[in-house]
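Onboarding guide, step 5: your first structure request.
Type a short instruction followed by the sequence, for example:

Predict the 3D structure of this protein.
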Amino acid sequence: MTAEPSRHDHFPRTDGARRQRIRAAVAAGEAAWRATDCAPDGLFTAIDALGDAPADMAVAQLLSWLDDTKWMRARLDAALALLAADPFLRPPMRLVGGGDGAPGGLILVDHGGVRLTLLVHPAASCIAAPATCVFVPGRAAVRVLSGGGASLVSHEVAVSAAEEAGGFTASAAARCHSHPPRPLHTGETLRLDTARQSYSLAGAAGDLLLLELAVQPPSVLPIRAYDIRSGGLIHASAARRDSSFRAMALALLRQLGRADAVPFFVSETRSEDFAGRWNAMRELIALDSAAALPHLVAMAASDPHPEVRHAAAATRALVFPPSGETGREGSEGPGPCTSPAPFTPRSVPCAPDPASCRA
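The system replies with structure tokens like these:
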């Protein structure tokens, strides 16, 4: 039985001139957008002028870019023109999510800790209310370009100054609570302290289109996911984008079995972010438990975060029991750990999950 041909079968692999034209068109389009953004009245210029302004002030100063969307329409028109010129060309925009009817979108601008994203929520993805909500340190404003007849449910969680300064623990985390649903109105703008406020959408009759402005400066407060029904914390992960990238890189190295990369794992077990440290240790144990043992012992004894110390001690007892039941025969020590140690969400930190990183 012959498989149906894919449109990718027609990609001009052997047409070097066409591929060169594609690359040149994408580069020219990206250069044009960058020139527009860097102009005196451009978006990059407006972002750079904020300097180290607090996130709430930055959102307030950039709200005009949500109110007047001519710049966005011009950018989308230019991207469509590129696609019309060659269907194999990929406009210089990053995709987020999407596929199989799931919410997705296009990152229009990502500069200096500020991101503008055009989000599409297909009606089918907003019929039933979700089970979880996510809180991401920072501030956001969301312009509703098309409400789709959906209802909005707001979620809130308390965060203390001590937690924002690095004292967050899963065991002491406040529960989140939800407000009654209300209609989502086309044309309205939502303003959010995303460390404490989130929202979910349900009951849509049509597709939703949102333009989101997010300002997310580096934060030691983790991204947190909560069960909406119970209000309980179910997941915590590193909020810093660089920590998330390193976590994904370590996961890939572990999957590839790159034991020669152990020093990178060890270095990340000493990083500033507590969730990143614990994730690195879990990955290191899965990669090479013998190499992980001395660092796990040190983490259990002296990590600055109490739940990381607890998790390290519990994992050492589970993976390296004194009796040696899980070790190799003889005196060579424990055998390789094939999976990270389990955890209890409200008592020890969780590993980062890129899918949960949106308020």
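Each response can be followed by summary notes, for example: The radius of gyration is 24 Å.
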